[in-house]
Amino acid sequence: MLLFKNYLSCGILLLAFNLQMSNVAHSQTVPISLSPSKLEMIVGEEQPLWATTNPPGQSVTWTSSDASKVSVEGSYGNAKIIAKAAGTVNVNATFNGQTSSCIVTIYDVFSKEGVTINGVTWATRNVNAPGTFAEKGSDAGMLYQWNRRIGWSSTKPLTSSPSGHSWNSSNPMGTT
Q1: What is the pTM of this model?
Q2: Cα(41)–Cα(119) distance, rounded to whole angstroms?
Q3: Span 32-107: which CATH code?
Q4: Closest to 170 measured CA to CA, from 153, 147, 152
Q5: What does the pLDDT look like over 28-48, one tens digit per residue?
Q6: Which residues are bridge partners to 74 per DSSP?
């Protein structure tokens, strides 16, 4: 009877071991994943993107489904993506024959000169010189007095555009 119990215990242990090994075989890990898996960006913006490989630290091939809208620079586990034009693009990372994608939605909020809210037009970019906007939305541009056409450099405060002007301290007129 004791021998039968030992065989039964061994049989139960072997069955449990086989079930455990079967679960390990079926729960294979994904060779590559991206973080984040979705991004929203503005034209001109740069964002990082990370790939996790299994095994870790492997070389990754990065691609964009539309390089005219998003460019991607990177190797191994990290990349820099640069939004160039409005639209939706997949940024792909490929490792060991497997590809993982990040869906990138790009908005072009700076293509218009202004946005009208409740009848007031607001500039979407900083003003670079009288009558022109800064190239990028992140550029500082010039500083202006209310309702004046004289700009002051944000990097050289005593420099005006057009040059040769001094700060106007009179009351502004009009509503432009």
Answers
A1: 0.52
A2: 28
A3: 2.60.40.1080
A4: 147
A5: 567 899 999 999 998 888 999
A6: 79
pLDDT for 108 equals: 80
Domain range list for the chain: 32-107, 116-161
Dist CA 99 CA 88 (whole Å):
18
Question: Which of 124, 94, 121, 93 is CA-nearest to residue 109?
Answer: 124
Q: Is there a contact between 99 and 31 (Cβ–Cβ < 8 Å)?
A: no
Sign of CA pseudo-dihedral 92, 93, 94, 99? negative
Reduce the secondary structure of the chain to three states and give it as a string: CHHHHHHHHHHHHHHHHHHHHHHHHHCCCCCEEEECCEEEEECCCEEEEEEEECCCCCCCEEEECCCCCEEEEEECCEEEEEECCCEEEEEEEEECCEEEEEEEEEECCCCCCEEEECCEEEECCCEEECCEECCCCCCCCEEECCCCCCEEECCCCCCEECCCCCCCCCCCCCCC
